[in-house]
Write a structure and sequence with these properties.
Layout: H1 2-22, H2 35-53, H3 88-97, H4 100-103, H5 120-132, H6 136-154
Helix pairs in contact: 2-5, 3-5
Length: about 160
């Protein structure tokens, strides 16, 4: 039984890895300067994200301190948080498959995976809205992070 679970876990991990590698960074690129995309993204953010991450992207109080459950509160998505420290492709994949995508399968979070709730285009729209709210200097820093991630993937 344990061996079967290990095999299933390995196959699931390989599936997620395949999905992440089959997408190029360009296909997972945010569009913070596209008014149609960010308008859709605001609607999606308001419906799906604001309840935890705040109407103004402010996150939950004391977001760096673990809750009694051992999990972390929802972080802010504004410039005070760490969202902008991750490239577009990773943000999309973490939203789609849950935070454990980046942190590992044993990571526990209150954030659900959205792969069966939102399309990839809707995820990109919500994240584009978030990025559109960052100050220009943070957006520029994030663009540099994206360029580095793209360069690393092409090596």
């Amino acid at each position: 039984m344990r061996r079967n679970l290990t095999i299933i876990s390995v196959l699931a991990l390989l599936g997620v890895l395949y999905l992440s590698l089959s997408k190029t960074p360009a296909s997972l690129k945010l569009e913070p300067n596209n008014p149609e995309v960010t308008a859709l993204g605001k609607d999606i953010y308001d419906q799906q994200c604001a309840v935890c991450h705040g109407a103004n992207l402010e996150g939950q109080p004391n977001w760096r301190q673990r809750l009694p459950s051992g999990r972390l509160p929802a972080p802010p998505h504004d410039e005070t948080g760490h969202t902008w420290h991750h490239p577009d492709s990773l943000l999309v994949l973490m939203t789609k498959f849950g935070p454990g995508y980046a942190a590992g399968p044993d990571y526990e979070s209150d954030m659900p995976a959205y792969e069966n709730v939102l399309s990839e285009e809707e995820i990109i729209a919500a994240l584009s809205y978030i990025k559109s709210r960052w100050p220009a200097q943070i957006q520029k820093k994030h663009d540099v992070i994206n360029k580095r991630a793209e360069a690393a993937q092409t090596r």
